[in-house]
Each structure stands twice: as structure tokens, then as C-alpha cells.
Amino acid sequence: xxxxxxxxxxxEAAALIRxxxxxxxxxxxxxxxxxxxxWLVLSQIxxxxxxxxxxxxxxxxxxxxxxxxxxxxxxxxxxxxxAAIERFEHAYIxxxxxxxxxxxxxxxxxxxxxxxxxxxxxxGEILANQVLRTHFSTVRSRSAVATDNAILxxxxxxxxxxxxxxxxxxxxxxxERAVFSxxxxxxxFDDFSTQTIRLTEASFEDALLASGSIPxxxxxxxxxxGALPGIYRDGGVIDYHFDFTFGxxxxxxxxxxxxxxxxxxxxxxxxxWRRPSxxxxxxxxxxxxxxxxxxxxxxxxxxxxxxxxxxxxxxxLACWLEVVDRCRALADELDxxxxxxxxxxxxxxxx
Length: 351
Hints:
By secondary structure, this protein is α/β, with parallel strands linked by helices. The chain has 12 helices and 11 strands.
């Protein structure tokens, strides 16, 4: 029987896990990628992480996410993370648009999902959590992309894509990274200009929403409390799957992912040569569905935003619910590997 999981580890991470097994205290950082509906293949794995990574921790865990990765981490840092994940999964799947939605309509629906995730006390619980520390990656728009006019923004993104293909750092002409943190900044960035902002009750919901505000799909978020003036958008523009060049706290980095490949920025999706270097992944452990498992999912792929156009609402709901149900196999295998002390047997190097 084929394995449902692919588990890759950098050199330093592999050595430590072979020596000590999957010890939650080895991990100092948790990274969550952008991906919208793709996160549904991780929702069952997230439940396993609540038990084996998050519960009864002694050492802090710094959680850096963009877009849906930020939303997942906002669930983890609440007092009852399993209940928050359940709420998120149900609210996300239950999105409904009778016609192609406008950016304003998607933004309203996203705020509804956010309100469901956070409930009455979620923001306060997350900000007060000294062990599970949240960091939301967003971008502040510059020059030609500092607009919500669809035509001008499309043109600006086209130019940004060309510039990015020539040089990833040159994308900084169009976007500045802005990281909102529940505590002190735990990550160091030197690839792009980066603004760091302390999360507060007043800024929390806008910052989290901005982290997932996909250009042209949602409206940009303006006037976030404590941040520089401007339009803030999906952190995945720069940190789509992350390039792992950032400085992270000592310890290993856990990276649950939708795919067995890493695409640094949103505009790198058609640039197959742009991948993180093996040296930057030395402390990383990546857990992802295996290619054979993904091929057997409905449509032969993980869910994505195209499903809204490809399926009727009834068909999409059925498809996504089936994906979540099938992904229980991922969670079962991960639980068996961790509980049985067999994680080291399954480690593969990054390619």
C-alpha cells in the first residue's frame, strides 16, 4: 500500500529526529503557507498537531503564516484549538456565491469566516497566549499596485510579474512585507523591506484579513491600527510558500504543506526554477500529502479557488467534504508515526 504522506527533512532536522524522534520541544517555529481551499487537505493533520505539537508545551512556538496559514494559526493559539479548527473548516466549506463574486463580496464573506473562527473571545486568547505566538505576513502595496482599481491593479501586477521573473528581490519595488505579531518579532528578514507591527485588539481582525486578501479577488485592507498608511494585501504575494531565507529562533521548523514542492512567492508559480536552497531548508521538516494520494482525490488534485467556477455550489460542497473525509488517512498515518516513534524511518531529503 502506498504511503499517504511525504515527509522531508533538511540535514540538521533529520539528524535530530533520528536521535530524539518527533519531540515537540525540538520545534521552535511553525510555518503556514498561502493556499486558500488547499488547506482542506491539512485540516485533519492540524487536529493531530494539536495533540502532538501544541498541547502541554513548555517552550514557545512561533507561528509564521500568510493567508490561510495565518487563519490556521489563529485557530491553534486559541484556548480550544480543536473547536476553532472545526468552526473554520465548516465556515470555509460553506462559502456560497450564486454568481461570480466581486472583491467586495468575497471580503464580506471572509470577514464572516473570520468572525466564526474567533468567536467572542478568540482575539483576547490569542494575544494573551505566551507559548503559541502568532505572526501574520502581509504586504503593503507600493507604486503601481497601490490601488483597488481593477484595471490599474491588473496592469501593475503584470509589470510586477515581469520584474519578479528577472529578480525576486526586485519585487520589493511593488510590495513591502509587513508582519503583525502577537509578541516580540521572532523572525529576521533581509530579502525585502519589512515592517513589523505589534498586534492589538484594534488591529487584529484587519491584520488577519489582510494576510489573506488576494489581489483582484478581495479588496485591499486600509488603515490598519498601528501600521503605516497604505493598502495591505495577502502576504503570499511575497511569502506564498515562503523561501526560508528568514532568520528563525533556534530549533527546528515544522512545515505542514499542501504539496511536495515549495514555491516561494505568488508570482513564482510559473517559475519552476525558483525554489528554496537546501541550505535554507536545513532545519525544516515538511509534512505533505504524497503525490499518489493527491492523484486519487476528487479531480486528481487538492481543492483550489477554481473549484468555485468549475462546480455548482452543491457539487463543490460534496467534493470538499469528500476531500476532508479522505484526508483522515493522512492524520491517521501521521498519528501512528509520531505515537509509534517511527518518524525517522520515513524521512526523505529535500529535492
